[in-house]
Amino acid sequence: MIPQLSKHIRTPVRHRNASQYLLLMLVSFASTVVLTRLFLTLTGFPKIGRGELHIAHLLWGGVALFVAIILMLIYANRWAFFTGAILGGIGTGLFIDEVGKFITSNNDYFYPLAIPIIYSVILIVVVIYLEVRRPLSQDPRAEMYRSLETLQDVLDRDLTEEERTELQERLRRVTTNATVPEMRLLGQTLLDFTLSNELYLAPETPTIWESLLKRLQKFISTQIGRRSLKAFLIVGLGVLGFLALFELLVLIGATISPLYLQQVATDLLQNNVVRSANGLSWFFIQLALEGIVGLLLLLASLFLLLHYDRHAIEIGYFALLMSLTVVNMLVFYFDQFGNVVFTLIQIALLIGLIQYRQLYITPQQRLLQPFRRIFGR
Length: 377
Known about the structure:
Elements: H1 18-43, H2 57-74, H3 78-96, H4 99-102, H5 114-132, H6 140-150, H7 152-155, H8 161-177, H9 181-194, H10 208-256, H11 258-270, H12 277-305, H13 309-334, H14 340-360, H15 369-374
């Protein structure tokens, strides 16, 4: 006699393709904000509507979000989730871009706090994406969920040999670890089905992201090469570090000389960079943080120049992450558009560091190796 379960199970199960969907949303979200601000700046912030009517792009964002939700509620196909992720990112980007209007009494689109809020939301999505990329749970119930999801490829005649092997491993874990008899029975039945020779297997076709990544790595290894990539990183990290170091020199000069501090504060107030004494304090905190990041970037550039690659990559990676996640929020508060180019350069350098580490840094190269060379050990 099969025992009856007394309670329904409501424990959430992570989607098999959750990281891909979040990445699509993140890219479309960030791209929408940047392209919207760029378009409005180039076109002089045009008004859509006549008289009292003004159709803000926030409304178009709502339409995109509505269509995304409708697609994912109606259709079970995988393409509906991919399309919903893209439309959701576009809709969120168009919505959050007008946050300045909704946190101020005078509907100020250019309110200084707007860009830091937008930037922080993007960072939150990045953190969620990184968390979702962690290994999936191997709980039997979660494995059965993902197995049933993978079986959609059988119906779409899109199951590859690699996916079948992964599916069989999941089903074996279900049949081995499941405590519920019907789950074991279902797992064994599906496992027998996947072992059938009559099961159609589609040819291996890499995803768009896999193709782009392989092409990028191939381009770096064949067309650019280790020496050119390393030169790009040395120059890029060095120039960014040198520019950031100037900010620290301004802070040191303001600390030492009261007259220079008064001159800097007057210039900032006249140019409307800061609006109060608290704003001036935060501006100097920003300078200090930029200076610290600049020193780390210069150190990373120097270590790369001296062929201490492993150590340089770790320092540069930390410095760029610190700049992208902490420093830029303050920079965007004081200059909403002036830091976009530097942010893109920082992202390019971060991608370059990651690719350099994956292509040319072996696990045997230890973090403290440079210091052992210096001390002859």
